[in-house]
Amino acid sequence: MTDLTEVTQDVETDAGPARVTWRHAGQPRLVLAVSHGAGGGIGARDLQALARVLPGHGVTVALVEQPWRVAGKKLAPAPKTLDLGWRGIWPALAEPGLPVISGGRSAGARVACRTATELGAHAVLALSFPLHPPGRPEKSRAEELLGSGVPTLVVQGGNDPFGKPGEFPEGAYELVEVPHGDHGFAVPKRAEISQEQALEIVTDGVTQWTASLG
């Protein structure tokens, strides 16, 4: 049985107080910890969809709010401060004693990739990985993605200005494309798939991938 009741936990870190919202699976085998991007929160459509669906497949979901977001700031701090906050949150994520998938969307995906090996993450889920700033493909962040050191899944919108699927380099990771999706996986009304179907591509892809992790 899956319990979709949210349980909120405040966590102290060296970057300030963070917050974890748990959606527990009835018989969990994994924890998927996902954080938000630099311009949004855990209300993002993809994070909420994963929190609804994954617990029914044996994956407890932990939606993580970085300290800057909890403090009510509008702009994310430097990458090293984001990493500091994620390190401080990690013991709470590992507390259930299950393998932890380190994940996030956009800037949160970069944090997950940068810290995965150091923290002992079981795998990395990179939602809307910002391969480069919009219009600046020469400013590639592929090294972060390729250096995660653990099994990695990228879920990318087909029309993401931060990097379309075809721009990604070859490497030891899997990629699921959301056709016509932008950086937030929003699809145009004229697209051949609906918004609901776009989110199903996200949740189905992540569900299948987590099943393959054992």
Q: Summary?
A:
This is Hydrolase. The chain is α/β, with parallel strands linked by helices and 214 residues long.
Q: What low-confidence regions span 5 or more consecutive residues with pLDDT below 50? A: none
Biggest sheet layout: 8 strands, mixed
Let me know the average pLDDT. Answer: 95
What is the H-and-E element order?
A: EEEHEHHEHEHEEH
| Net shape | globular
Beta-strand portion reads 15-25%
Helix count, DSSP H or I runs of 4 or more residues: 6
Distance between the termini: 20 Å
Radius of gyration: 16 Å
By secondary-structure content and strand pairing, the structural class works out as alpha/beta
Spatially, the strands of the biggest sheet line up as 1-2-4-3-5-6-7-8
Total beta-strand segments: 8
Helix fraction by DSSP (H/I, runs of at least 4): 25-40%
Account of the protein in words:
The chain contains 6 helices and 8 strands; from the N terminus they run E-E-E-H-E-H-H-E-H-E-H-E-E-H. It has helices at 45-53, 67-70, 79-94, 107-119, 142-146, 195-212, and strands at residues 6-13, 16-23, 30-35, 59-65, 100-105, 123-127, 152-157, 174-178. Strands 1-2-4-3-5-6-7-8 form an 8-stranded mixed beta sheet, sandwiched between helices. Helix 3 crosses helix 4 (107-119). It is globular, with a radius of gyration of 16 Å. The mean pLDDT is 95.
Topology overview:
Elements: E1 6-13, E2 16-23, E3 30-35, H1 45-53, E4 59-65, H2 67-70, H3 79-94, E5 100-105, H4 107-119, E6 123-127, H5 142-146, E7 152-157, E8 174-178, H6 195-212
Parallel strand pairs: 3-4, 3-5, 5-6, 6-7, 7-8
Antiparallel strand pairs: 1-2, 2-4
